[in-house]
Amino acid sequence: VQLVESGGGLVQLGGSLRLSCAASGFTFSDCHMAWYRQAPGRQRELVGTITNTGGSTYYEPTVKGRFTISRDNSKNTLYLDMNSLKFEDTALYYCNVPRYSGSRGQGTQVTVSS
Fold first, then answer.
1. Beta 91-96 vs 33-38: how paired, if at all?
2. CA 68 to CA 65: how far, in whole Å?
């Protein structure tokens, strides 16, 4: 299982970013996917999940209504669209395949500044 996240960066308060997760080494279209984040000094936090077809999503209350998870199975890619970013969204974001415990990429850093 290989996961490579990208798209992070420095963004102003209230701004937007799109993160991507390129997947390989497994049958992407068969697997539900998840986004997690971890801020310095804090525990890992689930951001949300998406079913293998993309037909259903779940979001943690802290991001619901601001973040959108989607996927393109033809490109083996998972996305996280983040809008109305807050300071507390600053974290290292990474994708995960729940079927493969412990799977994750190197993550992509999102920093929200004023």
1. antiparallel
2. 8
Half-sphere exposure (Cβ direction) of 8: Cα atoms closer than 13 Å: 19
Supply the Cα-derived Rg of the chain in whole angstroms.
13
* Separation in Å, CA 6 to CA 18, 26, 62, 65, 77: 9, 19, 22, 22, 11
Question: pLDDT tens for residues 11-56?
Answer: 999 999 999 999 999 999 999 999 999 998 999 999 999 999 999 9
Structure tokens at 73: 């199975």
User: If 0-12 CB within 10 Å is exposed, 13-18 middle and 19+ buried, where does residue 5 land?
Assistant: buried
Residue 87 phi, psi (nearest 5) = -55, -40
Instruction: Please give the Cα distance from 90 to 27 (Å, whole number).
Output: 31
Task: Give the integer Cα–Cα distance in Å for 77 and 15.
Answer: 23
